[in-house]
Fold this protein.
Amino acid sequence: MTSQTVDPATTAPTGRTRRLIPFNVALVLPAQLTMLAVVLAPTLIAIWLSLTDWQPTQGTAWYDAEFSWFWNFNDLWFDTRFINSLWRTALVVAVAVGFELVIALGLALLFLDEWPWRKLAVSVLILPMMIVPVDAANAFFMLFNDRGPINHLIGLVTGMNFQFSWLSDPDWALAPIVACEVWQWTPLMFLLLLTGLMNLPQNQIRAAQALGASQVRIFFRIMLPLLTPVILVALLIRSIETFKIFDAIYILTRGGPGASTETISMYMYNGAFVYFRIGYIAAAALVVLVLVVSICLALARPLKQHHG
């Protein structure tokens, strides 16, 4: 008689061999399939709608919409309102994230050393990011009101009755929005940078101090290069989040006056829920998705090169 060696882990009760899913894969497979369905299904629906001119006011179901193929993407190329909203969003991202980085880095350096009430001060400093964005926007709406504290404070400093319509001026309406974003989310950047500074290797810093290097030289020559990966990660996180800014704009200006504060999120909200151009806005959303992914890859490349 010939004996047959059988691996019990790969043998079915019928005697036929079969390959089981590895245990570590089986643990995460349900979650992975759920995430895939949650992400893939809306993406496929958005791609379908982007190739149609469907509107809910037409009285037809979205899956019965008539194809317009790539005309939506062609129209977006000549849509000045769409293009301007993209540039306006990029401006808000650049200004807000830039201010957040400078302020957060200065605060992180200030809180790097031990001093009395330091922990309490950190707790107070991070409170703004715990506030609901709508409430923060409402607070800044009152601050920048025509008769609000900002105008009153400027009047006290200048010694005259200062009244300025911040939220109604096309040239200055973005300022309260950027101020609200910087005030609320600088604490997040501060925490990231402070954590990075506290975990820097100290041997190089101590060696430079022993050689008599100044604090400014140590910061720019040693600390800042070592902190670069943390800065890149912080910039990436905040750029993505600021690109999606909506709450502050909706509460403060509704995208006005005119379209002077209309970012890409506000543009898509108006297009989808005011004008009901769902197919057209689906095409815009896909274009924005490609742009955001490209920007993320561009920001992540220096981080990869730094680790390489």
Notes: The two ends are 60 Å apart (CA to CA). The chain is about 65% helix and 0% strand. The mean pLDDT is 87.
